[in-house]
């Protein structure tokens, strides 16, 4: 084939002429670069390759990372993972070979991406998120994504979302907002983990975490400063009582002193807040994770203390009384999973009291059917959204809409196994959730999310709206 025949076949002469004319009109000082960029933009982007690998998350446990290629570049994402999984959430695919990473390897999920998902997605437009996600769901053919693995599907979904934003030449949060039909960009109030317990730490504290919400800050930049300063003051408070060894941290960066009770932890946090001088700007939240210490219909607050376990059983009514007392004594505005995942009755009654935000985590597992039931029964009034529990960006958008249509709060949440991927920050802004829970204001995988929110706020400038007092209903 001659050069002229090749040019004619691909209609290159016309395209090149258009690019040159555009460069002339623009009076560009670098016509070669201008023409190159113009030609690149004139070709619709498609997915050309999907390559996955096994990496380690923040716990040193394998997870899935994906590089999704288009003719605009390479877009990388990795799937988060939790310390435990519920029976109602999408299924992570693990190898189960005890000789490799104690059975936690994800080579099967990686293989599914490289051999099956890649073939199904090549040639697709990365801006068509719904079609991409549906193609993977159809390929899997199971209700909980157990064939290909929710960790495989999610990593690809996130990478495709980044590629879609690049194709549209907009920030990731803007692309997500477009997908969700949002027009305002709210920077969420961060729920900083200060004290860790439960399965996230090696102390005897039964509940999972004590957090602070800087709702009184004017901007996210100020909220991050408040969180960091309070964290450092808490370190000093703990050191004064337990010494430096009391400042070891849990999986999400919260301090894990061997405190004797929830009240002692709250007193520590209250003292740290007082030392900052931000009393009027900070509220407190607690993540209980009651499913972990529910035995039958009773709650064992000493389950992590072998010598005491069984001596501090509380009924659902006792737990409600305890929460009432705590909310009166401390500025607690949000309680996550105050009861077992199947204890609908006590959750409904406690929510009806209107004392605070009642967040469903294990109760809901980000599952649309569970959310619909909870809305109908008024079993809680906020959703803790963990994207690996649903498995795709599209489904995360859908369950967020379910919650917001019910006038619920929505908390975008980290997992105990995180990576340096900052996707959650853009997701929180794009979906205007008003709340994000990304761990303590320390550790790189946690700060990746908070630092990205700083960048987004700076980029938005005057268009940026910090959720602040509207943290529940953006």
Automatic annotation (TrEMBL):
InterPro entries, A to Z: Enolase, Enolase-like_C_sf, Enolase-like_N, Enolase_C, Enolase_CS, Enolase_N
Keyword match Metal-binding: yes
CDD domains in the record: DD_AtENO3-like (cd22962), enolase (cd03313)
GO biological process: glycolytic process
Residue ranges occupied by any Enolase C-terminal TIM barrel domain in the UniProt entry: 184-474
Residues binding substrate: 200, 209, 336, 361, 413-416, 437
Entry's Gene Ontology cellular component terms: phosphopyruvate hydratase complex
Pathway in which this enzyme or protein is active: Carbohydrate degradation; glycolysis; pyruvate from D-glyceraldehyde 3-phosphate: step 4/5
Residues annotated for Mg(2+) binding in this entry: 302, 336, 361
Name of this chain's protein: phosphopyruvate hydratase
Organism: Sesamum indicum
């Amino acid at each position: 084939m001659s050069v002229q025949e090749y040019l004619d076949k691909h209609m290159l002469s016309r395209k090149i002429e258009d690019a040159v004319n555009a460069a002339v009109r623009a009076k560009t000082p670098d016509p070669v670069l201008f023409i190159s960029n113009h030609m690149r933009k004139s070709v619709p982007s498609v997915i050309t390759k999907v390559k996955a690998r096994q990496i380690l998350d923040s716990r040193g446990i394998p997870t899935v990372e994906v590089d999704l290629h288009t003719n605009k570049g390479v877009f990388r994402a990795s799937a988060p993972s939790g310390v435990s999984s519920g029976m109602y959430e999408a299924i992570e695919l693990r190898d189960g070979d005890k000789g490799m990473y104690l059975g936690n390897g994800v080579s099967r999920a990686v293989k599914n991406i490289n051999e099956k998902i890649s073939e199904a997605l090549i040639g697709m437009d990365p801006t068509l998120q719904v079609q991409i996600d549906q193609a993977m769901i159809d390929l899997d053919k199971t209700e909980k994504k157990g064939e290909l693995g929710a960790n495989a599907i999610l990593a690809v979904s996130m990478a495709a979302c980044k590629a879609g934003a690049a194709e549209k030449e907009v920030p990731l949060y803007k692309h997500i907002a477009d997908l969700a039909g949002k027009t305002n960009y709210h920077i969420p109030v961060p729920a900083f983990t200060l004290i860790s317990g439960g399965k996230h730490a090696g102390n005897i504290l039964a509940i999972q975490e004590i957090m602070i919400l800087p709702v009184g800050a004017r901007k996210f930049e100020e909220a991050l400063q408040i969180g960091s300063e309070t964290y450092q003051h808490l370190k000093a408070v703990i050191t004064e009582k337990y010494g430096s060894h009391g400042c070891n941290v849990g999986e999400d960066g919260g301090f894990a002193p061997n405190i004797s009770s929830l009240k002692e932890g709250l007193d520590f946090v209250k003292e740290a807040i007082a030392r900052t001088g931000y009393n009027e700007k900070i509220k407190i939240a607690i993540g209980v994770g009651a499913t972990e210490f529910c035995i039958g219909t009773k709650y064992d607050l000493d389950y992590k203390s072998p010598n005491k376990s069984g001596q501090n059983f509380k009924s659902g009514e006792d737990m409600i009384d305890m929460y009432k007392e705590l909310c009166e004594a401390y500025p607690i505005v949000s309680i996550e999973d105050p009861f077992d995942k199947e204890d609908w009755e006590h959750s409904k009654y406690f929510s009806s009291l209107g004392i605070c935000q009642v967040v469903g985590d294990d109760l809901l597992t980000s599952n649309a059917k569970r959310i619909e039931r909870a809305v109908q029964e008024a079993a809680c009034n906020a959703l803790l959204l963990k994207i690996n529990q649903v498995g795709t960006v599209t489904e995360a958008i859908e369950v967020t809409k379910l919650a917001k249509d019910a006038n619920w709060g929505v908390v975008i949440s980290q997992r105990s196994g995180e990576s340096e991927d900052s996707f959650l920050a853009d997701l929180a802004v794009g979906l205007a959730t008003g709340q994000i829970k990304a761990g303590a204001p320390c550790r790189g995988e946690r700060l990746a999310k908070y630092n990205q929110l700083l960048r987004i706020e700076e980029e938005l400038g005057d268009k940026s709206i910090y959720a602040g007092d509207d943290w529940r209903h953006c």
